[in-house]
Specification:
alpha+beta; four-stranded antiparallel sheet; disordered N terminus
């Protein structure tokens, strides 16, 4: 709607706009075509899909909703790639914050700063680029940079679903305000401290894509390494074979046997994704209808877009 307001403002306040035409489907406005004279193409307005109509008037189309991808498969592939990139950037951001906090506590020398040495070991384990570490060591020494504080916020979603939001921030008031804004916009509700967290347990987790291993082989590796459990990925009625291949098994372990689990997987040549220190797993899961599921996914997605949010966990099945 912001794009529509811009278009109407231009139409009302400038003689350079010759006409507007609105296209709608059902009750949802999809785009606005703004027409310009060819001699007025220097207008400082940012639109997309530029072309000319039959009368040689210059036209730019403003989309007020996301254009539909050409084909369901291409949309899913694009969504997966976006999710993978977002997950990687979240990891890098979290490690960067840990580096800053460690340097603030004990200085930039890992040989005399045990907290920084521990973070650097995690960096090796997670294969985080060296420049991420170097950039945040430098950031920690800058004037005015505060140490990051870790906070947990508990949230109620739709259909009786609970969520835990992990935050690492140098400005508590900012992070709280941003989270409340998302909850207000998406229909979530902040829960009292302790009313949600007891539904989860903290564990070390290794994620293995289902098409990278055989389930029986994975169970054998987990048993030999002393893992606590192997969790199957969720499945849905409309899943395609490609959907199922993109899901992950979770090997659940502890801090004591985590290295052993990783070593066993490497010995067997199985690709895996390690966690970023630990994960929260629900003690039991809740099944909700499709509408509540989609609303909860949107709520989690919006929370994860916040810079201060490191992770969001849910008990939704």
């Amino acid at each position: 709607m912001r794009a529509l307001r811009v278009a109407l403002h231009l139409h009302a306040s400038s003689t350079r706009v010759f006409s507007t035409r609105l296209h709608s489907s059902s009750l949802f406005l999809h785009r606005t075509n703004i027409y310009f004279s060819p001699s007025l193409l220097d207008a400082n307005v940012s639109f997309i899909n530029t072309d000319y109509d039959n009368n040689r008037r210059f036209r730019r189309t403003i989309w007020t909703s996301t254009p539909v991808c050409m084909g369901r498969r291409s949309c899913k592939i694009a969504g997966r790639k976006e999710a993978q990139n977002a997950k990687k950037m979240k990891l890098y951001s979290r490690i960067g914050k840990e580096v800053v906090s460690a340097v603030k506590k004990g200085g930039p020398n890992a040989s005399t700063n045990s907290a920084l040495a521990a973070v650097l070991e995690k960096v090796k384990e997670l294969d985080v680029p060296r420049d991420i570490v170097e950039r945040n060591i430098k950031k920690a020494t800058e004037k005015g940079q505060e140490a990051y504080i870790e906070k947990i916020y508990e949230v109620y979603g739709y259909g009786g679903v609970s969520m835990v939001v992990e935050v690492s921030t140098d400005k508590i008031n900012r992070s709280v305000a941003k989270i409340r804004e998302v909850l207000n916009n998406c229909g979530g509700k902040m829960a009292d401290s302790g009313s949600v967290l007891f539904k989860f347990r903290r564990a070390r987790v290794v994620n293995i894509k289902v098409n990278n291993t055989d389930k029986d082989q994975l169970l054998g590796i987990a048993l030999d390494a002393g893992a606590e459990d192997v969790i199957d990925p969720p499945t849905y009625e409309d899943d395609t074979e490609e959907d199922r291949s993109e899901r992950y098994y979770k090997i659940v372990g502890s801090s004591e046997n985590y290295s052993s689990i990783l070593s066993k997987l490497r010995e067997e040549g199985i690709d895996f994704e390690s966690d970023n220190g630990s994960e929260l797993l629900p003690n039991t899961t809740i099944e909700v209808d499709d509408e509540a599921m989609d609303l909860n996914k949107e709520l989690m997605s919006k929370l994860l877009e916040l810079d201060d949010v490191d992770a969001v966990y849910t008990d939704q099945k």
